[in-house]
Amino acid sequence: MAEAENRNIEIFEKMPVPDAVHTMVVPTILGQLIILLYSIADTFLSEGPTTL
């Protein structure tokens, strides 16, 4: 836990802003893509057979 906390301190307090943003871009985009895929699957699979 202390190691992750030290990493967060390094990213948010010691890195220049553009570098910190670039560090956080990939995990953020991947998370949003996973949510998007879940929403699409939920839309088509949870309602059962319907006519489009």
Keywords:
single chain, elongated, 2 helices, mainly alpha, 52 residues
Question: What does this protein structure show overall?
Answer:
81% of the residues lie in helices and 0% in strands. With 52 residues, the chain is mostly helical. The chain has one domain (2-44). The longest helix has 29 residues, at 17-45. The protein is elongated and about 55 Å long. The termini are far apart. The mean pLDDT is 85.
Uncertain regions spanning at least 5 consecutive residues: none
Q: Mean of residue pLDDT?
A: 85
The protein's oligomeric status is: single chain
Tally the beta strands.
0
- Counting DSSP H or I runs of 4 or more residues, the number of helices is 2
Topology pattern, helix = H, strand = E: HH
**Total count of domains:** 1
The gist of it:
The chain has 52 residues and is mostly helical.
Strands, helices and their partners?
Layout: H1 2-14, H2 17-45
